[in-house]
Amino acid sequence: WTNLPLLLVYLAVIVGSLWAFLSLYKQRQITKAAKLEPWFPPHRQRDVYLSLLHLDPSEASEGGDGEKKLSKVPDSVLKAALLQRALEDIKRIVQLRSSKPALQTLLQRGSVGDELWQRFLRAEKEIEEEVKDVVNEANAFAPNWGQVIFQSANEMNQNLLIKQRTAEIQAQLEQEKAWWEKKRAGIQSDFMKEIGAEEAEDGKAQPPEAPLQQKKNGSSDEDAVLVEAGGPAQAQG
């Protein structure tokens, strides 16, 4: 029994030391995470929506004619701002999903540090909270709108991607056309050279016909025909 207080004091010192170490380590991790550079740039669409949402008409200044310069923001404008906010969230979600497998592979190989992975996890957590906030705001405007707002934002994102791709193709149209014209001219030039070479070869292989023509058209003593007198015509006469 005399050693029991010493044992309790020893356990208390150990537990207190571990608790102090864990608290200090957790505080350092929180401070380090707060100093990490954010994964995405500032969310301007969210800032615009919150600014429009918290715009107070009572704070509007009076004009010279007694009319207010500011009025209440219409719900249509707020809905459009919220939809733009959801569109930006969709873009960030797509970027996170496409970057996660490659980042995990690089982290396993040791090509990137743990700091980059902490930034990525922080971005995922922030986007989850952002999605929940957008859903709640959408349901506040209209019932069950929060279930389809991200679907509409995804369709808008797909349309934007199609327009960007179409614009890129249109920008490359003149360059592709010039390249094709140059290639077609080269093909025609090579084809004409091949035809000229074939005609030259045919001309060399053909035997000369001029001596034969002269021999056939000219006269020869061997080709002369002698007609004797007293032929059948004279006998008959």
From TrEMBL:
Residues 190-237 are annotated as: Disordered. GO terms for cellular component: Sec62/Sec63 complex. Keywords: Membrane, Transmembrane, Transmembrane helix. This is Translocation protein sec66. One of its GO terms (biological process) is post-translational protein targeting to membrane, translocation. It comes from the Eukaryota. The chain crosses the membrane at residues 6-25.
